[in-house]
Design brief:
The complex is a heterodimer. Chain A is an alpha+beta fold. In chain A, 19% of the residues lie in helices and 37% in strands. Chain A has a single domain, classed as OB fold (Dihydrolipoamide Acetyltransferase, E2P). In chain A, strand 2 and strand 3 form a beta hairpin. Chain B has two domains: 248 residues, Probable tRNA modification gtpase trme, domain 1 (Gyrase A, domain 2), CATH 3.30.1360; 88 residues, Elongation Factor Tu (Ef-tu), domain 3, CATH 2.40.30. Chain B contains eight helices and 19 strands. In chain B, helix 2 crosses helix 7. The chains are: A alpha+beta, B alpha+beta.
Amino acid sequence: MKFTEEHEWLRVEGDLVVVGITEHAAEQLGDVVFVDLPEVGTSVTKDDEIVVIESVKAASDILAPLDGEIVEVNEALADEPGKVNEDPMGDAWFFKIKPEDMSQMDDYLDEAAYKALIG
Amino acid sequence: MADLNVTPLNALHRALGARMVPFAGYDMPVQFPMGVLREHLHCRARAGLFDVSHMGQAILRAPGGCAAVAAAMEGLVPVDLLGLGEGRQRYGFFTDAAGGILDDLMLANRGDHLFVVVNAACKAADLAHMRAALEGVEVEEIADRALMALQGPAAEGVLEALVPGVARMRFMDVGLFPSEFGELWISRSGYTGEDGYEISVPDDQAEPLARALLAHEDVAPIGLGARDSLRLEAGLCLYGHDIDTTTTPVEAGLAWAIGKVRRAGGARAGGFPGAERILAELADGAPRARVGLRPEGRAPMREGTPLFATAEGGEAVGHVTSGGFGPSVEGPVSMGYVPRALSAGGTTLYGEVRGKRLAATVTPLPFVPARFKR
C-alpha cells in the first residue's frame, strides 16, 4: 500500500488502484456526513479535485492521485458516509482508478514514510 | 497561541482529550473524543455540559435600583425591560441607529440590579457601549466567574441532585443558589433548544463543579462543534453569522422579543436606536426574512452559499448565513435571508454548491421542536 501527502491510501488491485483516505485523515476530518463521488468513466488527471468529503466541520477535497479513468466508485458511501470514520482503510474506499501509467505510484510514500509524515 | 485567553476549565478540557481551537480570542474545545455527531445526539438524549465562560457577564446598578437600570437600558435595547419581573430573564439585542443588530444578549432582573450575558466577540464593544450610553448606571464586568451550560432532558435531575431547588425553576427563571461550589447564579435557559440551565460559578469552583456534573453518567462534555449544530437545528441565531449590523430584528425573525409596549402605540414605543426603521418594519413587514432551509439530498449548504429562485439563470436572491449537517434531523439544514415573497414555508429555492444548483425547501424554524420547561 502507498500513501500520498494528502492522506490518501492507494492499493494496487490487478491493473486498478483502489483509493481511500487514511485513519489519520478521517480522524482529523471528524464525522463525515456526505461524500460526493465522481462518475464512473470520468477521465482524470493527477491532482484534479474529484471527491468532496463533507464532515460536520467543513468540506475537503480529494485529489486524483494518478492519471487515468475512474472505473468504479463506492456507492455505499452515498447512504452511509459515516463508514469513512468507521473503516477508512477498508470498507470506505472511495473509487477505483485504471491508471494510464502505473509508474506514477513510485512517487508516493510507503507506510514507514507516511507514518513519519504524520508523526 | 500564547495570546489566547483561557477559561477556568481549560485544563479540564485538555485532560478530557478535547481538540482545542481559537474562538473569539479564547482557546476553546471544538470537540471531545466522542465527536461532534455523538456529542450533539447525547445532548438531545441525555445531557451535555458546555463551557461558555468566554461570554461576557456584567452587573448593571443604579441608585434608583433595577427599574432605573431597566429604564436606561430600554434606550439601547428594544425589549420591555421595565415589565421584566424579578427573578426573570429575557432575550434581547443592542440595535444601532440604522436598525441593525450590534449584539444579542440575555438580560435578567435580579432584584436590585440587572445581570446581562453578552457574546464573547462583542464583549468589549458592548461594555464600552453601555458605559458610554447609560448615564448614572454602573457597569461592572464580572471577570472572576466562569459560565457553563448544562443542557438536555437529564439536566434537571442532574443539577437538582447537586443544587436542590433548581427543578422548580421555569424557563427563563433566574436565581442565586448557595452550594458547595460557592454561590451559583443559575438561569433556566440555554441555546440548544433543549431544557437546561446556565450556571455562573466562581472561577476557582468551576472545575470542581464541572467534574461533579460530569461524574453523572448522563452528562458528557460538549464542544463548540455540537453547540453550533444544536443551536442551528433549534433555529437560533449566531451573532456575526445570522445576525449582525446589516440585519434588523424584524428581518431576522426576532420581532417576538420586542414587547408590545415598545411598539407603535405602546406606552414606551420606540426610544431605542434604529426605532424608526424597526417600527416601520414591524408595521409593514421587512423586505427580506431569515428562513430555515432543508436542502434535498445530503450535501450541506454552508454559510455563504448563494441562493437562487430558479434552477438556472437569474441573480442570487439571498445567501445562507449558517448551514451544516443536523444530526437530529439526519440531514443538512441551513438558515439564510431571502426576499419576503420567497420566504413562505414550502417555497423551493436553489443553493449553488460547487457550481451546481441544488434544491432546498423553505422550512419553518426550528428544525427540531424546542423542549423548554415553560
